[in-house]
Amino acid sequence: MLSHARTTFVACLLAATAASASAQSDPTEPSAQGDLAVTIYNNGQSLVQDVRQLDIARGRSTVTFPDVSAMIRPETLSFNAADTTIIEQNFDFDLLTPQKLMEKAVGQEVTLIRTNPATGAETRQRAEVLSTVGGVVIRVNGQVEVLRDDGLPVRVIFDDLPPNLRARPTLSVNLESSRGGTRPASIRYLTPGLGWSSDYVALFDEAKGTVDMQGWVTLTNTTGTTFTNADTLLVVGDVGGGRNMRRSDMVRPGTQSAERERLGDFYLYPIEGRTTIANNQTKQVSFLDVQGVPAARVYSAGAGWLATWDDWQSVSSAISFNSSREGGLGDALPAGTVRFYQRDASGNPQFIGENSIGHTPMGSVLSLRTGDAFDVFSKVEVERRDKITAADYERSARYRVIENGEVTREVEVDRAVDYYRTTMRYSFTNAKSEPVTVEFRQSGLDRGYWANDYRVVSEDVEGEQLNADTRLYRVTVPANGERVIRVTYETKY
Q1: Contact 305, 445 (CB under 8 A)
Q2: d(Cα 148, Cα 7) in Å, to the nearest integer?
Q3: In degrees to the nearest 10, what's the CA dihedral of 182, 186, 191, 193?
Q4: Is 59 left (phi over 0), alpha (psi -120 to 50) or beta?
Q5: What's the rounded Cα separation, in Å, for the pair 203 and 187?
Q6: Distance (Å, whole) CA 18 – CA 15
Q7: What number of other Cβ atoms are within 10 A of residue 16's Cβ?
Q8: Structural contact between residues 186 and 79, judged by C-beta atoms closer than 8 angstroms
Q9: pTM for this model (two decimals)
């Protein structure tokens, strides 16, 4: 016969679990950790090194290390203590929670204490736990019941504590020691769950042409363990590699060495003083604070070959600065997000945009797009395009005919080469009360192996050839005005 007991076991279970999680994340709870060092990488991995003073008996014994990461990668563990040899290691990650207690009690008997809500009288019953899948199923006096959260109070008393449940994540090591006594014992392991990111707060002063910048490191811990009073080190760089993506934020990479400790191809950023990284905590630490760095607002636009825009388009607005030692931020910059602010007429900083940067060596020139300009527009049109036929011919192909292993004849093919003269018109408008300079890039000039030769016949503004494909024009647009420039190209395409 199947009956349904109305109890509040599930509610009690959830409350107890929450209390257990809270206790794990409480940085003030006594910790068994020793001299702790934590190295946090960009790739979601961290190296934990923990040196504890342990009393190790002579001969074979087991030592335990409570308060290791609940996400420890056991295969990365290294143990070291003088005059010892490791035999076996175990990681007990089954934590002591009401749910785990009930799961371990399947097939065993427990005591139920039920309270009469009207009289307050308690009754005790022995019950066998049959299953915990999707709920708790028990057998009481030969009848099968389901414990449900129906609002009536019930408590479950267990006869004993299962041997493999731990109040905290615990590593145990079986070892052989040639002597007894207290000595330093160290463990070293990798774990996910510890991470860091960098963020920058930049106050831009357009009138002075400067930016004040602060850099913050944000530490996060979701390992299930609090790391107490740890010597914390951040590694800047992509350990293990990553996708080599095109950098839109960097105009030119720097060539200066930052005055920071390096580890191979990576920079080390130590957190000053020891710090406690609590479980389920976010912590911010300052690592950069520089005032009055030269900076400028940059307007830019661009178009491909033979582009014609039907409508006017806003130009991009960006803020440019550098990380050099002389006149710049003077440091290598970890990848992160830069958020820009600018003071309004009342002197209050207002948010004006953000963008991300990659890992940036010192001495780099950065230009970070913050949005589209409200008052500055551009338009691109093909004003004229004429075909020009060359007076002579170009030998474009030669091949040999081979018969029976011998060259019987050689053939040359001639074809006329058509040239084109194209005039592009670039128009700009400016509704601001001061002149602006727009950096316009004409791309698509290099057509590859078959037509990579071209000429710039005339240009209203002298251009700068950035590479075989792109030419840059810096166009000054007057205040509350407009400007049109024309450039004529001769090409094979």
Answers
A1: yes
A2: 5
A3: 60
A4: left
A5: 45
A6: 5
A7: 14
A8: yes
A9: 0.72
Q: How confident is the model at residue 149 (pLDDT cuts 50, 70, 90)?
A: low
Cα separation, 113 vs 126, in Å, equals 9
Q: How far is CA 402 from CA 238, 266, 414, in A?
A: 55, 59, 21
CA distance 111 to 120: 18
- What the block records as the tokens of 206 is 């357009």
Q: The tokens of 116 are what?
A: 């009469």
Per-residue pLDDT at 194 exceeds 50: yes
How high does pLDDT run on average in the chain?
84
Contact call for residues 471 and 464 (beta carbons, < 8 A) = yes
Asked whether the beta carbons of 360 and 366 are under 8 A apart, the reply is yes
Nearest to 224 by CA among 16, 14, 51, 20: 20
Q: Which amino acid is at 261?
A: E
- Interatomic CA distance for residues 461 and 457, integer angstroms: 12
CA distances from 57 to 54, 83, 144, 361 (A): 10, 11, 50, 52
How does residue 25 score in pLDDT terms, banded at 50, 70 and 90? Answer: very low
Structure tokens at 330: 């003077």
The average pLDDT across 311-331 equals: 93
For the chain, the distance separating the N- and C-terminal CA atoms, rounded to the nearest angstrom, is: 88
Contact 214, 201 (CB under 8 A): yes
Higher per-residue confidence, 409 vs 296: 296
Instruction: Extract the tokens encoding 288.
Output: 């950069």
Inter-residue long-range contacts of 311-315, CB under 8 Å, 24+ positions, other chains counted: 311/379, 312/377, 312/378, 312/379, 312/427, 312/429, 313/377, 313/378, 313/379, 314/372, 314/373, 314/374, 314/376, 314/377, 315/372, 315/373, 315/376, 315/377, 315/378, 315/428, 315/438
